[in-house]
Structure formats: C-alpha cells, structure tokens
Amino acid sequence: MPSSNTITLFFFLFFFPILSHSRLSLNFYDHSCPRFHQIIEDIVTSKQISSPTTAAATIRLFLHDCLLPNGCDASLLLSSTPFSPSERDNDINLSLPGDAFDLIVRAKTALELACPTTVSCSDILAVAARNLLVMLGGPHFPVFLGRRDGTVSTSSSVTNHLPKPTMPMTQIVDIFTRRGFTVEEFVALTGAHTVGLTHCSEIFQNRSVDNNVNEKYNDGYNPRFAEGLKKACGNYINDPTLSVFNDIMTPSKFDNVYFQNLPKGLGVLKSDHGLYSDNRTRPFVHKFGEDQDLFFKVFARSMQKLSLLGVKTGRRGEIRRRCDQVN
C-alpha cells in the first residue's frame, strides 16, 4: 500500500498544471495595475496604425513562444548572452519581424512607468496578440492573466519544436499533437496565415529561382500563381527582404479566405499545399473554407489553449524589468 507521502506527491504532480492555471484570472491586474488593459490597447493601436504588419508579426511571435518546451513565458524575447545563443537567435526565429519585438518593448516601457515590476512580458505578449487579432477582424477570446516570465532561453531547445514550411505534413502535425492539439485545432491555428507576409527565401528555399516554373511547382501550385511568385521574388537572393502576402485576396483581413485559396493552388508555402493534400487535414480545410464562424470558433478556442501552455506562476518565474533580459 503506498505511503501518504507517495499519495501526496502523486496528487501534486498530477494536479500541478490545474493548480497553476487556477492562479490565473481575467482580472489579475485590476488592483495592482488598473490601467493595464488601456495602456496595452493604446500602444497596440498606435503601433498597428503606424506599422500595419505588426498584427501578423505579433501573432506569429506569440505562437513561436508558446509552442516551445518552456511554454508561454516570453523566453523568446530574451537576447543571447556571450555564453549562450537564445531561442530568438535560432535560425527559424531570425525571420520574426522586428515590429512585434518593438511593440512589446513599447508596452513594457509604458507599463513599467505606470506599475513598476508588476506586469509580466508574457502577459503583455498574450494580450497584445489577442487585441491585434481582433483589430484585423478576427475572433475575441478571454486571456487569463498572471503569468510569470521565464529565465532560461537556449537556441538548442527550439529544434523540432516549431514548424518549418519545408517539413513533411506528418512532422508538422506531430509538433502540435505532442502539445495537446487536435488535428482540427492545428489546421485552425494554421489559418493565421490568412494575414501577414512570407519572405521569398522561405518559398524558394533550396530551389533555384531560374528553374522551370512547371517543374518547380509540381506540388499543388496554380501555374499562373507560380509564375507570379517567380516574378515577385526574382531578386530575393540579392534582396533577402523581399516578401509576398500569405493571402493574396484579403491580405490585411483576418478571415477564412486562406482556406478557400488552398484548393485553388494559391497557397504560398509548401506546407500550405501540404495542408490540402494530406488526408488528415484536407477535410478541415474544406470545413473552415465553407464556414467562417466555425473557423473563428475553433481558432479562438485553440489560441486560448495555446496561451495556457506551460504557464509559470508564483515562484516559478519572475516579472522581468526588461523583456530582453532576466533581472
């Protein structure tokens, strides 16, 4: 018969994630920082107006931070040290747009002036991503607050934990299912590609831009669209900043047009076409393309689920004074 200590340990290990989440609340800063939501809303609105790419960039930053083993702890915001490269400097994260990082710095600076050492960078990122999603016409979802910031960030921890457009669909699906998402939720989260830009280098990776278009795009691309991509990205080797919209139809609006594009061969990335060609994911592409309300419902649920991955509360983290370095 197990001892009482063994039973206590089992209870703690089994229920710790639930206990951690229970420390989060929707009104966490009501007393400690009453202007928390207004400050973030003001900063987010100003930044998005001046730099319209901020919304898609921040949503992507949020996804990359939360999917990593550390969970939603803003470890992706930490800069490298002379002794150790951080998650931020891993190859897959080098293309994360600077607008998202700048937004978090601005919000953190304003909140430190109003409520010193009170609001975590991870909470700022979670709320900013949600607010920007809504600004683009996407669904609203409640963000529970009270996260603490992580103190560890290593480039090596990123490997095989974030999806790359060149990965086989089986590997990408596995990244999400290992984190507790269903295939339907994974497809919904991929719908974030309905906004934002993709660097041409990610489209033409390991391929010569001078290759025959039909030969190059033999995996689901519309031939005319492929020709357009080739022209738009023709100088990407000399100009690595060249980018194209993920959704050529409604690039600045969060909607379900991305899913409508895929059956037409209008996906930008190889992984977009993989989403439609894979038997596990294709049914959800059709469902979300036909029913935007369903897409929004599943996307909102999945984003909230994402926002709770590996959250740190209590003594498991800290409130960073600066988001790019530990205290």
Automatic annotation (TrEMBL):
Query: Pfam families under this entry?
Result: peroxidase
Asked if the record carries the keyword Metal-binding, the reply is yes
- The entry marks the following residues as binding Ca(2+) 2, namely 194, 247, 250, 255
Please tell me where Ca(2+) 1 binds in this chain. 65, 71, 73, 75, 87
* Signal peptide region: 1-22
Predominant localisation class = secreted
Among CDD domains, the record links this protein to: secretory_peroxidase
Per UniProt, residues of the Plant heme peroxidase family profile domain are 23-327
UniProt keyword list: Calcium, Disulfide bond, Heme, Hydrogen peroxide, Iron, Metal-binding, Oxidoreductase, Peroxidase, Secreted, Signal
- The protein depicted here goes by the name Peroxidase
Record the organism. Lupinus luteus
Instruction: List the taxonomic lineage.
Output: Eukaryota, Viridiplantae, Streptophyta, Embryophyta, Tracheophyta
